[in-house]
Write a structure and sequence with these properties.
Layout (H helix, E strand, L loop, with lengths): L1 H31 L4 H11 L6 H10 L6 H13 L13 H5 L2 H29 L3 H16 L2 H16 L18 H38 L2 H8 L4 H7 L1 H11 L1 H18 L5 H10 L4 H29 L1 H6 L3
Length: about 325
């Protein structure tokens, strides 16, 4: 228990340091974007027909505290980020926490749903496929996984929308029906959300499942040929007990360790799918902030929240991996 507690404390410190470094990088990138928030906001007001003077820009810069030293502004932004306060959007002048609202949590729910779907299919199917000698089943599975890797998610979304519109008269867009968008949360609203959210989860989980399936199958195929598996079979351990107790336990270590990477890859694919399905979530907001309005405050907040989620998830998977494999606990204490 002492060794495990030391391992957990070490990983927690490493996760915190990682988050500090990432926050510094994100804030630095926000600062390197040509023009600060005051200039962008005044340029936006100028497009609305208002005359802007240099004095007005300086006053706005002072109001936002942009005349303070870089380190002071970073520590202030970081302190607000840990409290969930990212200030106001550069362009919209709306509090970012209020602007995001439930959108970021919807985005995480979609990404986590796609991730769980991918693993729920890929882990058992990949393990059984690696241990099976059925050529037809293996070749069919290989074709399906290659199709999942070759067919982009946005193209799959367009195909599903086209078929649904032509044959069923339903576009399947959005996360909520119009009558529930501004309504308080209730069982009816939750059921309406579940009736819509399955589509983006399925689309994002499509390629994630294919990728995870190929990975699990390759890792299992490598483990099955090792001597410790042969020795266990010689002792009379066979069937699923042999698979799950020995090769699967070792093969799933890298899978558990790559959960954060898989979540990040799914979120990277979310903005395009969000635009096609007209989802009002953090993915589409991030795309708008980066490519259209160039709102670095909003983009930085979303990127920091996503990074914090991935760091927390990696910390949790490290602990889970240490429970599964004692070698992981010992490796960091050497």
């Amino acid at each position: 228990m002492i060794q495990f507690a030391r391992f957990t404390a070490t990983r927690a410190i490493m996760a915190f340091i990682t988050l500090l470094i990432v926050s510094f990088v994100v804030f630095t990138l926000m600062e390197l974007v040509p023009g600060d928030c005051a200039e962008r906001y005044m340029a936006y007001k100028n497009t609305q027909g208002e005359a802007i003077t240099l004095e007005a820009i300086d006053a706005e810069r002072a109001r936002l505290g942009l005349d303070r030293p870089f380190v002071t502004r970073w520590t202030s932004w970081l302190g607000g980020a840990f409290r969930g306060d990212f200030g106001d959007s550069c362009i919209l002048r709306v509090n970012i926490a209020d602007l995001l609202g439930d959108k970021f949590w919807f985005s995480l729910a979609i990404c986590f749903g796609a991730l769980c779907l991918a693993y729920a299919i890929a882990v058992p199917v990949g393990i059984l496929s690696a241990a099976s000698n059925n050529a037809l089943a293996n070749n069919s599975l290989r074709i399906v996984s290659y199709l999942g890797l070759a067919l982009p998610n946005f193209l799959l979304a367009l195909i599903i929308m086209l078929v649904s519109t032509v044959y069923f008269g339903e576009t399947l867009t959005g996360l909520l029906s119009p009558e529930y968008k501004n309504a308080d949360w209730s069982w009816a609203k939750l059921l309406d959300l579940l009736s819509h959210i399955w589509l983006p989860i399925f689309i994002l989980g499509w390629s994630a499942t294919a990728f995870a399936l190929q990975t699990v199958r390759a890792l299992m195929s490598d483990e099955l040929g090792k001597l410790y598996v042969t020795a266990a079979a010689a002792r009379g351990i066979t069937g699923r007990r042999l698979l799950w107790r020995y090769p699967a336990r070792h093969a799933l270590g890298p899978i558990v360790n790559s959960v954060g990477f898989d979540l990040n890859r799914i979120f990277n694919e979310l903005p395009i799918v969000a635009v096609i399905l007209t989802l009002t979530d953090a993915g589409s907001l991030l795309l708008d902030a980066l490519a259209r309005s160039n709102d670095q405050q909003l983009a930085g907040a979303i990127i920091f929240l996503l990074t914090a989620t991935i760091v927390a998830l990696n910390f949790a998977t490290d602990i889970l991996l240490a429970v599964i494999d004692p070698r992981v606990r010992k490796s960091i204490l050497k």
